[in-house]
């Protein structure tokens, strides 16, 4: 342990040995987090191992180990933090724990069986208690129609705006069901991910999921998306901690609206569990392959289903049919024209690579960083543009000579991603989950994609075009500089996308499956 690490340990021992963490202490912790960002992977892992061997203050162990994970990104630290959580969580505390952990591990490439077992055991205990309470008190009673459903609720844990890809997915589902299947559709915005002002865990860095506070109660909103210019019904429930009362209110609203079937859009946890087997249900999203909650069928990206996910589905007792599909198709749109390069200090002779994501600070892995630097060294006319993460500090990640030559540019969160995509030449995908809709936006704006055979973006292109490792990734980048190869890859990509990523056909298959499920329900 070097002198810096000893100083960090001394500060941690002092700060976390009090009853609570002061504002001044939080400034010190911010400095510690900033310093640990400079550690390489080997240093982080070694320091984490040393900390796990030491006796640390027992006053605030959950905030301490969550903070250490945020600094060092070693899953063992998060696992240690679980040891200090209650053996049984309340319903509201379960949501707080689940989403705080979920946000942290989403960008991690290292899984944790211990974390999954803990969360699943809590979920199973609470769902049994919840469903028992609802049943004993006559709450959430439905009379399934036993026919083709025409009134459908899309249950979503979070609705923001049309720049937010999960929100765009929910609206797209509603618009397609309304136009092509004549359905009366309600999007239930449960605000299950938002609990501003509540930090029962006393975490230093609390996962702050946003809420669209303009969405209140029942309202009708006009949506202009692609060729849709129609109104959508939204039922928004108050942001805040999830409670039995709130879940009962959601069920009561569904009953009053005479909802005949539900689509669980995303991980809806106990809300969806309370609706399971009461109404025909289908799970559909691109962010999660195996949800905690149960449904009658699961519409998931087939390329992301493997033996591990199937084993997990069996463990969770998901007996409903798995529909092996593609990602939900919700690109941001086709640009009317590319943005002008001079707006960004660029010129027409430069070759532009585009990297998009709202979590790029966590997604730029050492392998991806090395490929970018290797590419820029090999191609003097190349520039890499990062979009979507304003706080990304490229000056702390890449070589000084590349920065001084302005070979790397972070444009932050741009309102016209389609225009940015059309301005660039190639879309580069990090080793990550997520990023699917920015990949779709790139494709419909005629950008080829370079990606490893991993994650959501990889499902958008043919298997033959997916790089097997970073060496193959760099090879493909270089091949794209050939006009003939570039044109061939783009043709293959567009053809594959057109065949496998048709939103109308996807929603039709979902609705047909819901109809078959509904006919199995009797009054």
Write a structural description:
- The chain is of the alpha/beta class.
- The protein folds into three domains: 3-133, no CATH class; 144-329 and 504-518, 3-Layer(aba) Sandwich (Rossmann fold); 341-500, Glycogen Phosphorylase B (Rossmann fold, 3-Layer(aba) Sandwich), CATH 3.40.50.
- The protein has 20 helices and 13 strands.
- The protein has helices at 3-15, 23-36, 41-53, 61-72, 75-82, 91-106, 113-136, 165-181, 244-256, 269-275, 307-315, 360-363, 366-378, 400-404, 417-423, 436-444, 455-458, 470-479, 483-500, 503-518; strands at residues 151-156, 184-189, 217-225, 228-236, 261-264, 281-284, 297-301, 321-325, 351-356, 382-387, 408-412, 426-428, 449-450.
- Strand 10, helix 14 (400-404) and strand 11 (408-412) form a beta-alpha-beta unit.
- Helix 1 runs antiparallel to helix 2 (23-36), helix 8 (165-181) crosses helix 20 (503-518) and helix 13 runs parallel beside helix 18 (470-479).
- The protein starts with a helix and ends in a 5-residue tail after the last helix.
- The mean pLDDT is 93.
């Amino acid at each position: 342990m070097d002198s810096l690490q000893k100083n960090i340990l001394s500060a941690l021992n002092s700060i976390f040995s009090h009853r609570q963490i002061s504002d001044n202490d939080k400034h010190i912790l911010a400095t510690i987090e900033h310093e640990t960002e400079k550690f390489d992977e080997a240093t982080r892992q070694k320091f984490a191992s040393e900390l796990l061997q030491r006796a640390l203050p027992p006053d605030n162990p959950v905030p301490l180990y969550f903070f250490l994970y945020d600094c060092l990104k070693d899953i063992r630290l998060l696992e240690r933090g679980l040891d200090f959580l209650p053996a049984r969580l309340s319903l509201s505390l379960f949501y707080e724990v689940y989403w705080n952990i979920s946000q942290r591990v989403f960008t991690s490439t290292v899984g944790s069986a211990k974390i999954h077992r803990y969360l699943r055991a809590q979920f199973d205990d609470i769902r049994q208690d919840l469903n028992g309470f609802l049943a004993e008190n006559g709450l959430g009673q439905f009379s399934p129609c036993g026919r083709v459903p025409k009134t459908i609720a899309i249950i979503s844990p979070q609705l923001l705006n049309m720049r937010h890809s999960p929100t765009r997915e929910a609206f797209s589902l509603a618009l397609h069901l309304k136009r092509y299947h004549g359905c009366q559709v309600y999007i239930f915005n449960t605000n299950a991910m938002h609990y501003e002002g509540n930090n029962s865990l006393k975490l230093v860095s609390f996962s702050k999921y946003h809420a669209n506070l303009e969405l209140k109660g029942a309202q009708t909103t006009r949506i202009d998306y692609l060729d849709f210019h129609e109104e959508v019904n939204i039922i928004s429930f108050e942001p805040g901690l999830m409670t039995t009362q709130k879940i009962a209110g959601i069920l009561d609203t569904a009953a009053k609206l005479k909802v005949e079937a539900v689509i669980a859009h995303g991980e809806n946890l106990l809300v969806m569990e309370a609706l399971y087997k009461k109404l025909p249900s289908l799970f559909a999203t691109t962010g999660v392959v195996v949800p905690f909650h149960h449904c009658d069928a699961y519409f998931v990206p087939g390329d992301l289903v493997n033996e591990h996910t199937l084993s997990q589905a069996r463990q969770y007792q998901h007996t409903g049919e798995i529909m092996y599909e593609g990602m939900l198709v919700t690109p941001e749109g086709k640009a009317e024209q590319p943005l002008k390069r001079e707006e960004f200090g660029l010129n027409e002779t430069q070759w532009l690579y585009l990297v998009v994501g709202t979590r790029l600070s966590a997604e730029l892995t050492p392998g991806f960083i090395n490929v970018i630097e290797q590419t820029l060294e090999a191609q003097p006319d190349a520039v890499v543009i990062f979009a979507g993460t304003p706080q990304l500090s490229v000056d702390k990640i890449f070589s000084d000579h590349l920065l001084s030559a302005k070979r790397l540019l972070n444009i932050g969160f741009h309102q016209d991603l389609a225009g940015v995509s059309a301005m660039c030449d190639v879309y580069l995908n990090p080793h990550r989950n997520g990023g699917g809709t920015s990949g779709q936006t790139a494709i419909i704006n005629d950008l080829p994609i370079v990606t490893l055979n991993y994650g959501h973006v990889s499902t958008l292109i043919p298997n033959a075009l997916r790089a097997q490792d970073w060496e193959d990734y760099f090879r493909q980048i270089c091949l794209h500089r050939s006009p003939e190869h570039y044109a061939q890859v783009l043709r293959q990509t567009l053809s594959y996308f057109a065949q496998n990523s048709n939103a109308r056909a996807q929603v039709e298959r979902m609705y047909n499956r819901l109809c078959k499920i509904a006919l199995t329900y009797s009054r």
